[in-house]
Structures are given as C-alpha cells and as structure tokens.
Specification:
The structure holds two protein chains of two kinds. Chain A has six helices and no strands. By secondary structure, chain A is mostly helical. The longest helix of chain A has 26 residues, at 2-27. The radius of gyration of chain A is 16 Å and the shape is globular. The model of chain A has no long low-confidence stretch (mean pLDDT 89). Chain B has one domain. Chain B has helices spanning 3-33, 41-47, 51-71, 76-83, 85-98, 104-123. Chain B is mostly helical. Chain B starts with a helix and ends in a 14-residue tail after the last helix. Residues 131-137 of chain B have low confidence and may be disordered. Classes of the chains: A mainly alpha, B mainly alpha. Chains A and B meet through helix 1, helix 5 and helix 6 of A and helix 3, helix 4, helix 5 and helix 6 of B.
Chain lengths: 120, 137
C-alpha cells in the first residue's frame, strides 16, 4: 500500500511538473508583470491543456500524499521528493529536450543526495 | 555575458527568490495555523480559514503561480536544483526559530544542496531548449 502510494505520488508529480514546463514554454516568457497583464496571462493559461493536466496531476499527487500520511509518518513521506528530482531531471532531458550538461547532472545528483540526507 | 543573458539571469534569481520564500513561509504559516487534532473532513476545511493557515494557503498559491512564471522562460532542469535551497532554509528555520538541533547528517545534506545549487545556478545557462528562432544561450 505504502509503495503503491509512493509510486503514484512520484509519477503524478513528475508528469505534472513536466506538463507545467511544456505548457509554460508554449505560452512563452512572461515579460509584463503589471496586474492587468498577469490577469490576462492567467486567463489564457486556464485554457492551456498542459496547465490543466498539471493541475489534475498535482491534485492526484496531493491526495495520494494525504493518504500516505495516514498510513505512515512524515519522515517516510518527504524523502520521496528526492526521487521525483531524479525522475524529473531525466524527463527534462528526454521529454523536454533540455540540454542537461555534466554540470547539471552533477548539480542534480548533489541536490538529490542532499535532500535525502536532510529529510531522512 | 550579453545583456540578454544578464537580464534573464537577474529575472530568474528574482523570481526564484519569490518561489523559495513563498514556499518556505507558506508551509511554516500553514503548520502554525493547523490545530493539533483534525477529527472530521470538515475540520480540515474549517482549519484553512484560521488566520495563519489562510495566510499560508495564500502564500502557497503565490508559490505555485511564481513557479509557473519561472518555468515560462527557465529550464525545468535548472529550476529544480536552484529552488531546492528551500530545504536549507527550512532546516535553518528549525534551528533559528524553534531552536532545534541540526544533526551532522542534516548539515551534510545542507552542504550538498548548496553545492548543487551553486553548480547549476552559477555554472549553467537559464534556458537551453527553445524554439529555433531564439538563439541558445
């Protein structure tokens, strides 16, 4: 049960964040930070299907996390973020086609180990 | 460093600061506003309307929106490690505000995260994968 919930959380978070990155890239760089322009951008984004997918995936992840907290404690649940970092960096390279050079791999590896150490 | 690269870097660090602080303080206020016991599902909803919890929720909404804004120009593989500095702040917050001891293992984790953030934040470009008409930096 715990492992199934962990798998759901990791998969939903990683897929959700990749969808968010896709949707925001498609939208393009936000340059105008005046309230009216931000409201317009928010209006456009609510019709962006990647962003809708992101919100849906995050809802799945959130409720699975709440469920996990009822069957285990927080110190078991939080280090899972380290696993999503690894999965998302791999997806950034192969799905989003980002150029992940050795500095980024090294940085991501350090952060993954660090997050695991801090939260375990 | 071209002016475009400098502009993007400044904008990225400003937005990343908002992302990290809204997350750290959002979670802190939410925790502070939560009652010790939540017996029914309705109690969860009611708890969100307590002042500290409501402030926490507002900050967490700001976190989600600022993170999406950051992703509108920055790579996911850049945003992930750079915003992980939040874990360091949470650990230091525990020490400074709650006077918790930080174990050797946690200090080691903090050092590793800072090193990772420095490598990616200082050593790599903010965006690498963009449309063909935009030059890669």
């Amino acid at each position: 049960m715990k492992l199934l919930l962990l798998a759901i959380i990791v998969a939903a978070t990683a897929v959700g964040e990749v969808l968010a990155a896709m949707g925001m890239r498609r939208h393009g760089e936000i340059r105008d930070f005046r309230p009216g322009a931000l409201r317009r951008a928010a209006g456009v984004l609510t019709r962006n299907r990647f962003v809708i997918g992101y919100v849906a995936a995050m809802a799945v992840s959130f409720f699975a996390f709440m469920r996990l907290l009822t069957v285990s404690n927080l110190s078991y649940a939080v280090p899972v973020t380290a696993v999503t970092y690894a999965l998302e960096t791999v997806m950034a390279k192969y799905v989003l086609k980002e150029r992940v050079n050795w500095l980024r791999w090294a940085g991501a590896a350090l952060v993954i180990c660090g997050v695991a150490l801090v939260s375990l | 460093m071209s002016s475009e690269t400098a502009r993007l870097r400044f904008k990225t660090w400003t937005c990343a600061t908002v992302v990290v602080l809204s997350n750290v303080f959002g979670n802190l206020f939410l925790k502070r506003g939560m009652p010790a016991d939540l017996p029914t599902p309705l109690a969860y909803v009611a708890a969100l309307f307590r002042p500290w919890a409501a402030l926490g929720v507002i900050l967490l909404i700001a976190w989600m929106l600022s993170r999406m804004t950051l992703l509108s120009w920055a790579d996911l593989s850049y945003v992930l490690p750079v915003t992980s500095i939040g874990y360091v702040l949470v650990a230091l917050e525990g020490k400074l505000l709650l006077h918790e001891e930080i174990s050797l293992k946690r200090w080691a984790g903090i050092v590793l995260i800072m090193a990772g953030v420095a490598l990616v934040g200082g050593g790599t470009a903010v965006q690498t994968a963009r449309r063909a008409e935009e030059p890669a930096r």
